[in-house]
Write a structure and sequence with these properties.
Blueprint lengths: L3 E4 L5 E5 L4 E2 L6 H20 L5 E7 L5 H9 L3 E7 L6 H4 L4 H4 L6 H9 L5 E5 L2 E6 L12 E6 L13 H10 E9 L4 H10 L1 E7 L6 E7 L2
Parallel strand pairs: 4-5, 4-8, 5-7, 8-9
Antiparallel strand pairs: 1-2, 2-3, 6-7, 9-11, 10-11
């Protein structure tokens, strides 16, 4: 499938798949979307509601370009165990064309961005003394973690092109992977997605979306 690097509305890059008319990130702004959906309404929300935290575990569904993990690395100030799952890893030559370090004014962290992408798959790596990264190449339906994560960044391709990734069965796997009171955040706000989350056991909130989207969803595991 053809792939091309494009510039989104906030100046940051993403990968575009013309055959699907789908991008790895919002065409309205890759960095803006990552901050709004995953950092503001995921990471920051969870830390604000769990002030006693000194360590956090995050699962990303769709590691992709590494943007969400890199921003989490920049913004988080407590020990982080980060697991990124990706069935089809981005090629090294594509990574070199991404402009996230420059657009985030994070030149001092370029080594860490490169280290994330250079890290071997299937092993836990120390990116620095407060951020550990494990990249797993597997299909989402194969995830069998139980009560391991505080937050899930659900950043799969959209339901329009991959509806099988947005089913009750997948969200049940996510529910089981989260600790009690853990949260899942995603850019999607489709009614079918919300209902699938609810059927899996989640308490689901509609929240204002990032630029270009009216709403997004946050789901909480309540017992």
């Amino acid at each position: 499938m053809k792939r091309e690097i494009i510039i989104t509305s906030d100046g940051s890059t993403t990968i575009h798949l013309p055959e699907w008319n789908e991008q790895y990130h919002s065409k309205h702004g890759a960095i803006q979307e990552a901050y709004h959906v995953f950092i503001k309404n995921g990471l920051e929300y969870f830390k604000e509601t769990h002030k006693e935290l000194n360590e956090i575990s995050i699962l990303e569904i769709g590691f992709g370009t590494g943007l969400n993990s890199f921003i989490t690395f920049i913004e988080n100030d407590i020990l982080t165990n980060y697991v990124g799952v990706e069935a089809y890893p981005v090629a090294v030559e594509e990574v070199t064309k991404l402009n996230y370090v420059a657009e985030l004014n994070a030149e001092e962290n370029r080594t860490f961005f490169n280290k994330m992408h250079a890290a071997s798959w299937g092993e836990k790596h120390e990116i620095n003394d407060s951020f550990w990264l494990t990249k797993r190449q597997q299909f989402f339906k194969e995830i069998d973690d139980k009560e391991c994560y505080d937050i899930i960044y659900f950043d799969a391709f959209g339901a329009r092109v991959q509806p099988d990734l947005w089913t009750e069965a997948i969200f049940k796997i996510m529910y089981e992977a989260l600790k009690e009171n853990g949260v899942l955040v995603t850019y999607s706000a489709k009614g079918s997605v919300r209902r699938a989350m609810q059927a899996a056991g989640f308490l689901v909130e509609r929240l204002p979306g990032p630029p270009g989207k009216r709403e997004m969803l946050r789901a909480t595991k309540t017992l």
